[in-house]
Design goal:
With about 375 residues, this protein is an alpha+beta fold. It is built from nine helices and 18 strands. The chain starts with a strand and ends with a helix.
Length: about 375
């Protein structure tokens, strides 16, 4: 494993130098019910809506928000369109990882010059709250990136959506702050090609890489590399399978998702203990961690602020790099297909992605695979 970081100020000379997460759009079978799920379990608030009542007759979309996180849950009203086909093929899954940019036209042009395939050429949309510019490119599988230029737009989300009054809280508030990274699973031998895609199209650099010696157990393995912008705001780890004695979690994902796609979203918090307590109270299920993991934790990671017993009771993992340490935990899959899940992460200086936790994490995942009969 290697980690690179620079003390130099990020280059702001290109349209994709200063970017951030805008929203994550899921294509789902029933957006209304999915909206209720994320409100009641993860503490989101529904802030905007688009559908037949707003002049959109082929779909319904619900916008959820928590601090700097926006989810859009979209389902088809026709049953014979691209949204319905996406759900038929993949189950509920991430369609669009949208990126906020200062100039969507220039960002799209840069991406196309870098070799990206266009899905939507730059288009301007406006209403009484102002204007936005949108443009979309394809990435791995059926996943896309929409560039969103929204400086000066005062509406709740985008033109075409109506703002909804915030309702009374329906669940314990877990204080989820922002997207930390978005992990994609790709097919055998495709990791390097997609790493090059983010380098050429976005101007990203490789932050860290792991080979099958870093991420393996007795039975399964994978390879991964993390592509990042210079500010480390937008990070895309990319996983591919590696050969092992049995089927890895990446192979299982590719089988059930029927191709490449977003495996999980890592969501940042500044108090992981309180966050996990709230999420458990709301009914969120997490992967288990063997008690043996905590027996030598202090020697492995050094001094940390948290009490080891508190972490053990909540099954929270810890890892350290030369910049600090981080704490993380992973939910079980969020739908019947064992595909998309969430990671909850708190960073205390670290840029790590939890190499020291891979063994414990993989053992937990393999136990879940064994229950499903897919190991």
């Amino acid at each position: 494993m290697s980690i690179t970081h620079s003390s130099q100020a990020p280059d702001s000379s290109t349209p994709l130098s200063t970017i951030d997460w805008d929203h994550i759009e899921f294509y789902v079978g029933n957006a209304k019910q999915a909206s209720q799920f994320y409100q009641c379990t993860f503490g989101f608030e529904q802030i905007a809506y688009a559908g037949p009542e707003t002049g959109l007759h082929d779909r319904a979309s619900y916008v959820l928000e928590q601090h700097d996180i926006r989810f859009v849950l979209t389902s088809s009203l026709r049953g014979d369109d691209a949204i319905a086909e996406h759900v038929k093929q993949h189950g509920d899954g991430v369609r669009d990882v949208a990126i906020r940019v200062r100039d969507a036209r220039s960002a799209w042009e840069m991406a196309i010059r870098g070799g990206a395939r266009s899905v939507l050429e730059p288009v301007e949309r406006q209403d009484e709250n102002g204007r936005v510019v949108l443009a979309t490119i394809a990435t791995y599988g059926d996943t896309v990136h929409t560039f969103v230029e929204r400086d000066g737009y005062g509406g709740a989300f985008l033109p075409g959506y109506v703002e909804l009054a915030k309702s009374a809280p329906r669940a314990a508030k877990p204080h989820l702050l922002a997207i930390d990274h978005c992990v994609g699973n790709v097919g055998w031998g495709e990791m390097d090609a997609w790493g090059s895609f983010y380098e050429k199209v976005f101007g990203f650099s490789q932050l860290v890489s792991f080979d099958d010696k870093d991420i393996s157990t007795e039975f399964t393995a994978l390879k991964s590399k993390v592509m990042s912008d210079a500010r480390h705001r937008v990070k895309f780890p990319i996983n591919e399978p590696a050969h092992g004695k049995k089927k890895s979690q990446i192979e299982e994902y590719l089988d059930f998702y029927r191709g490449a796609g977003v495996q999980h979203l890592a969501i940042r918090t500044d108090d992981i203990v309180a966050t996990i307590d709230a999420l458990r109270d709301n009914g969120v299920e997490f992967l288990d961690t063997p008690d043996a993991y905590y027996e030598d934790l202090q020697n492995r990671v050094g001094e940390i602020d948290e009490d080891i017993e508190v972490l053990r009771n909540r099954k929270i993992l810890v890892d350290r790099d030369d910049l600090g340490y981080m704490l993380q935990i992973f939910t079980k899959p969020l739908q019947d297909r064992p595909t998309v899940f969430f990671e909850i992460i708190q960073r205390k200086g670290s840029l790590s992605f939890g190499k020291g936790n891979f063994k414990a994490l993989f053992v937990s995942i393999e136990k879940e695979q064994e229950k499903r009969g897919t190991l």
